[in-house]
Specification:
By secondary structure, the chain is of the alpha/beta class. It has helices spanning about 25-40, 55-65, 85-105, 115-130, 180; strands at about 1-10, 45-50, 75, 110-115, 145-150, 170-175.
Length: about 190
Amino acid sequence: MIDLYLARHGDYGTNASRSPNPPLSSRGVQQAELLGRRLSEVGVTAIVSSPLVRARQTAEHAARVLAFDRVIDVWTELREGNQRDERGPFIDRATGALRRIGESFGDGDVVLVVSHGGITNYLLQAAVGTPDPARVFFVLGFCSVCHLRLTGNGPPLRENWPLYPIPEVEVVTIDDTSHLRDAGLEQWGG
């Protein structure tokens, strides 16, 4: 089983008006540090990030708090979409990224993926097999955590529980921002 933590990047505030690829704001840095603290007890074994600055910085700040001493992988397929993207290829990109996660990591790995609201939505939908991703959209706060367990191809049925087959994906949390609440840093939008 792979424990997969999908995190949206931290806040970038007014930096977006100055750059198409903005860095984190000071608030976003605080959020990223709290993300690291939130994940400090799960034993992160790998961190993967979108190539965009706000996601990379979020991954780097979280990694520092985690005392993560390995390389943070950067995957271009995790970048956010833009107005020129079409939905079909964007969905395919998310589906391919989820497949790559399954192929790149194995049983016992705990993987943090830092990306963006849109691509995280499509990763979630690819994981649960949503037939029409246009019908569902998860509102995800900055530095929110979605926790999935990718169970792979285990036995199809639970012994003595035929109504509840063992799933390929267990959804543990979506949009968990509890680690930001006490600091007053919960924030949606952007």
